[in-house]
Specification:
The complex is a heterodimer.
Chain A (H helix, E strand, L loop, with lengths): L2 E7 L5 E6 L38 H14 L7 H14 L1 E2 L6 H20 L7 H9 L9 E3 L4 E6 L5 E6 L7 H17 L17 H14 L5
Antiparallel strand pairs in A: 1-2, 1-6, 2-3, 4-5, 5-6
Helix pairs in contact in A: 2-6, 5-6
Chain B lengths: L1 H14 L6 H18 L4 H27 L7 H17 L4 E3 L7 E5 L17 H4 L5 H12 L2 E9 L9 E9 L10
Antiparallel strand pairs in B: 1-2, 2-4, 3-4
Helix pairs in contact in B: 1-4, 3-6
InterPro entries (chain A): Longin-like_dom_sf, TRAPPC
Family (chain A): Belongs to the TRAPP small subunits family. BET5 subfamily.
Protein name (chain A): Trafficking protein particle complex subunit
Chain lengths: 231, 190
């Protein structure tokens, strides 16, 4: 069960991290979520013929990768060695931060932004004082939070922290709810590698992204360990 | 509600927080302030500004750790916010629980009375006649609160109005909610 892409937006609505797994960045239109090819329905992070690096990968390594995946099927967590190996493969096959500023990222954000607004306005809790009303209608309130939406071809999971970070992951439509995974990413990957890292800013400038190697690697390993148990 | 919050603060402090020796902490902060006083030739206004700024930079990151450890959801009123700041925030990071008093009638301003202040152990202000009037020794706390609250959309003014180090009866920190910040919306595409 594949994971297609992973995105983080900061509270200034900029995409500060994007990660694509095995999807090409060569679609000239560039404005659809590229999760449609049928070949992806079956294989994990299936090699996508349109991806630029695929041709440079030797065929043998692809087949070993596939066999290692099938032998690991059913285990909750793969061994860390094979995780590292898989993460390496992913790093070669995916793209980091390549799509932060194009239409895909902005449209995805816009979609979620609007859905969330609607979710908030459909149900508004009773308030007694003006101040409570201000607290409730301001934003980022969690009483009616958006969690995911699904189309025929993908499912988009959404988690927003109280200080305005948004974590988004796009997966196969049959995936289970990944709320807890997104929360875990915030708690056990983002916090130690970004927040506690004095070299990383709190407020990202425009076009500034998370390019921290430890973060990217941890994210890749996390999703690689999860792809077996997505349903 | 209030009891639950207190319980939460205790639990977080007991189980989830890494602790350091409190004297090490106190003395480290003391050296920072002393060094700042030397660096700015006892211009205490400037020292206050610098500690505030340090605090702010701590606060904007501290809030992430706070949210992770407490797993709290959003407060429904500023009164809740005050309870959480005192019973969970101060508890988990400093192991003290300030009293909340002096609410204004429009519920936008409250005071935190620090009955004990770990930053101020062993501290004596310089005896130059100026420090006791101008220096807010624990001003870093104001910065931390300001930074952390701003990250959750609460634009607040925070400042000390009295300090036992200056010879006052109590150490009192005043927090005023200026506004609830509006959510940022994406820049329009032209």
């Amino acid at each position: 069960m594949p994971i297609y892409s992973f995105w983080i937006y900061d509270r200034h609505c900029n995409c500060i991290f994007s990660r694509e797994y095995g999807t090409g960045s060569q679609d000239p239109s560039g404005n659809v979520l590229k999760s449609t090819p049928k070949s992806k329905g079956s294989a994990q992070f299936a090699p996508n013929p349109s991806y630029e690096n695929t041709s440079s990968l030797p065929t043998s390594s692809q087949s070993t990768q596939n066999s290692s995946i099938s032998s690991g099927r059913g285990q909750r967590l793969l061994s860390s060695a094979s995780n590292n190996h898989k993460a390496q493969e992913l790093i070669q096959k995916g793209t980091v931060n390549a799509q932060n500023n194009n239409n895909t990222s902005k449209l995805l954000f816009g979609t979620l932004f609007s859905l969330r607004k609607i979710a908030g306005s459909v149900c508004t809790p009773q308030t007694e004082t003006h101040q409570e009303e201000e607290f409730n209608t301001s934003n980022l309130n969690s009483f009616n939070a958006l969690q995911s939406f699904r189309t025929l071809n993908y499912k988009c999971h959404y988690y927003e922290t109280m200080n305005g970070l948004r974590f988004v992951v796009v997966t196969h439509p049959a995936a289970r709810s990944l709320q807890s995974s997104l929360i875990e990413i915030y708690h056990s990957i983002y916090l130690p590698t970004v927040v506690r890292n004095p070299l990383m800013p709190v407020n990202y400038r425009e076009d500034e992204v998370i390019s921290n190697d430890r973060f990217v690697r941890a994210i890749d390993e996390y999703w690689a360990s999860l792809e077996e148990t997505l349903t | 509600m209030s009891k639950q919050i207190k319980q939460l603060g205790d639990d977080v402090w007991k189980t989830k927080v890494e602790k350091v020796n409190s004297e090490l902490f106190t003395l480290t902060y003391g050296s920072i302030v002393a060094q700042l006083c030397r660096d700015f030739n006892n211009n205490y206004e400037e020292v206050n500004a610098q500690t505030y700024k340090m605090g702010y930079n701590i606060g904007v990151r501290l809030i992430d750790e706070f949210l992770q450890k407490t797993q709290l959801s959003r407060c429904s009123s500023f009164r809740d916010t005050a309870e959480i700041v005192s019973k969970v925030g101060f508890k988990m990071f400093l192991n003290v629980v300030p009293n909340i008093t002096n609410w204004t009638s429009d519920m936008t301003t409250f005071s935190l009375i620090l009955t004990e202040n770990p930053l101020a152990d062993f501290v004596e202000l310089p005896d130059d006649g100026k420090a006791a009037k101008e220096l807010w020794y624990s001003n870093i706390l104001c910065g931390v609160l300001r930074g952390a609250l701003e990250m959750v959309q609460l634009d607040c003014e925070v400042g000390f109005i009295s300090d036992v180090l200056r010879g006052d009866e109590t150490t009192e920190l005043r927090v005023r909610l200026v506004q609830v910040l509006k959510e940022e919306i994406p820049a329009g595409e032209e």
